[in-house]
Amino acid sequence: MELETGKSTIASYDDDERSKRTGTWVSASAHIITAVIGSGLLSLSWGIAQLGWIAGPIALVMFSFITWFTSNLLVDCCRDPVCGTRLSCYMDAVKSNLGGINNKFCGIAQYVNLVGVTIGYSITSAISMAAIKRSGCFHKEGHAVGCHVKNNMFSIIFGIIEIILSQIPNFHELSWLSLVAAVMSFAYSCIGLGLSIARVAGGSRSRTSLMGTTIGVDVTDWEKVWNVFEALGDIAFAYSFSNVLIEIQDTLKSSPPENESMKKATSLGVSVTTMFYISCGVLGYAAFGNTAPGNFLTGFGFYEPYWLIDIANLCIIIHLVGAYQVFCQPIFKQVEDWCLNRWPNNNFIKGSRPIKLPLFGDSTFSTFRLVWRTAYVITTTMVAMLLPFFNGILGLLGAASFWPLTVYFPIQMHISRENIRLFCWKWIWLNVLVVACLIISVLAAAGSIAVIAKDLQTYKPFTSVS
Question: What is the CATH number assigned to the segment(s) 24-91+99-402+422-456?
Fold first, then answer.
């Protein structure tokens, strides 16, 4: 029997004895676009308003190039440098290439950031849901009515949706959700672009300048400094996907080589993202000028064409539903693998049974997965309701993740794998890039913390209102 079925058995597994991967560069591109074009896009017009016509687009291009360059270094680290076995997560890549304390440092940076991103997406989705309700209220009751609504109910609705989707067993079964989310990101980006063009063509007299917001007119001198730093953090967050890059790469089939497919997906994903970012950021700034809002879709108001803005917010919600899963699945896998290794004979942890789901086909049900993942979603939802600071949270997350995950570890692993000599020209300029990005990240974190500290002065828990 083993001889007769050996060929089919071997064919159903990859070289690391795990189930055969089926992902392609197309599905990886969808995962990347879903992860990158998210709530970060909504704050870019505000960021360019702080930086101005010169520094704003330059910052977008600079972060784009750095992300593309370091991502190409990172994708080459997906296999163990000694034995060549496949690595399934960022921490494993760091452990195999650098070892020592780097592995723990990477784990803290990656998983704190992933948790933060899921909280940020919960905040953003609640704001978009509330915007739809306010829009309908204005259309029905008139523009003189305040139509203010609390965001808590919408955070709970988003949490319930994520509890259901979190039962998807693993990253490999998320391709369909990422494809839908990627389409939604294109949709609301195009709507935002169209509304910006219409506003500019309609004779918008919004004041802009080469240096952005003006000291003494729009902001004080210290507000200008902190806002510039926060804007850098927002842009860094907008390009953040290195924290799930290895996990996305682990979905790719082994032929053609996964690093080649991933480089193609990364180039496409970053190129498309940059095109949308520059278009939305620049046109958003042209439309609103130095008074650009933190979420540029809310700047178009809740009036006419209210239905088009509602569609844009609905697309944001659907996109974030998928993006939340892209960022939380690595957390789920890490915790579940750790628990299984820690208690291998515990039936509650290892027990699962096959089930058939309508539209989704065969799957597996695990009581442990249901309990743990539900608890995680509830916790992130509660924190989102507790700390509803949109721009400050985005900037802080971008600052905290950009340097270690996007710059430091990919470059250090590349130096180690290629055995680059100390103080040779390539070693010097790579480390100059590391230090320069560290300075930017520290400044961005300082700006975001200053903004959050200011918001906390008038903050009351669980009372966020749109």
Answer: 1.20.1740
Closest CA to 243 of 389, 410, 395: 410
List, for residues 285-299, the tens digit of each pLDDT value.
Answer: 988 888 888 777 766
Q: Hey, where are the domains in the chain?
A: 24-91+99-402+422-456
284 contacts: CB under 8 Å, gap ≥ 6: 44, 45, 48, 192, 196, 292, 296, 299
Identify the pLDDT of residue 50: 93
For residue 201, what are its two tokens? 């063509």
Tokens of 46: 């505000």
Tell me which residue has tokens 């957390």.
Answer: 331
Dihedral (C-alpha) 185, 156, 333, 341: value to the nearest 10 degrees? 180
CB 235 within 8 A of CB 44: yes
Confidence of residue 66 (pLDDT cuts 50, 70, 90): very high
3-state secondary structure of 355: strand
Q: Yes or no: say if 309 and 131 are a contact pair by the CB < 8 Å rule.
A: yes
Burial of 38 (0-12, 13-18, 19+ CB in 10 A): buried
Helices and strands (DSSP H and E) totals, the chain: 17, 2
Share of the chain above pLDDT 70, in %: 86
For 357, which DSSP code?
Answer: E
pLDDT tens digits, 200-212: 887 767 888 899 9
- Are 337 and 172 contacting, i.e. CB atoms less than 8 angstroms apart? no
Could you check whether the bond before residue 305 is cis, i.e. omega within 30 degrees of 0?
Answer: yes
Q: pTM of the entire structure?
A: 0.82
Tokens representing residue 449 in the block: 């913390």
CB-CB neighbours of 111 under 10 Å: 17
